[in-house]
Amino acid sequence: MTFYYRPTVTEAFASVQYIMTEANFGWLIRSVHRWSASMMVLMIILHVFRVYLTGGFKKPRELTWVTGVVLAVLTASFGVTGYSLPWDQIGYWAVKIVTGVPEAIPVIGSPLVELLRGSASVGQSTLTRFYSLHTFVLPLLTAVFMLMHFLMI
């Protein structure tokens, strides 16, 4: 999808439309990507629930639990960043709300919001950051934490 997606506020939506209607099998690739992401979130929730019920977080597996929680947070982050990339009304407002949540934190809230958005308001810098997170930073972190998680099992 990165061959066709253009991460700009003026072209993102049109590029997603192109992927869905013009690119060879683009509709299939995007649909599989979207449904796989939803299933991943469901599987993570079920896995965390199972580990909690079986006590898999107790000694000597505390660090395995911590890496699992980090992987769950990374999965949620993939969801939020991916949800925003079409830059439609739903994606835009989701980003506006999610990046506005830290505003409630005293002292560091406003700087944290600016760090997430890239400026005081949601715009091109926000989309660029979310695209970079979704395609580079989060996959790299996920690979590192999955390796750690699997080596401890």
Summarize the structure.
Helices cover 73% and strands 0% of the residues.
Instruction: Report the order of strands and helices.
Output: HHHHHH
Low-confidence stretches: none
Which class best fits the helix and strand makeup? Answer: mainly alpha
Give the helix level as a range of percent. over 70%
Name of the CATH homologous superfamily? Cytochrome Bc1 Complex, Chain C
Descriptive account of the structure:
By secondary structure, this protein is mostly helical. The protein has one domain (12-152): Cytochrome Bc1 Complex, Chain C, CATH 1.20.810. The chain contains 6 helices and no strands. It has helices at 12-21, 26-53, 62-84, 89-100, 109-117, 124-152. Helix 3 (62-84) crosses helix 4 and helix 3 packs antiparallel against helix 6. The longest helix has 29 residues, at 124-152. The chain is globular and about 50 Å long. The mean pLDDT is 97.
Secondary-structure blueprint of this entry?
Blueprint: H1 12-21, H2 26-53, H3 62-84, H4 89-100, H5 109-117, H6 124-152
Helix pairs in contact: 1-2, 2-3, 3-4, 3-6
What keywords describe this structure?
single chain, about 150 residues, mainly alpha, Cytochrome Bc1 Complex, Chain C, 6 helices, transmembrane helix, transmembrane
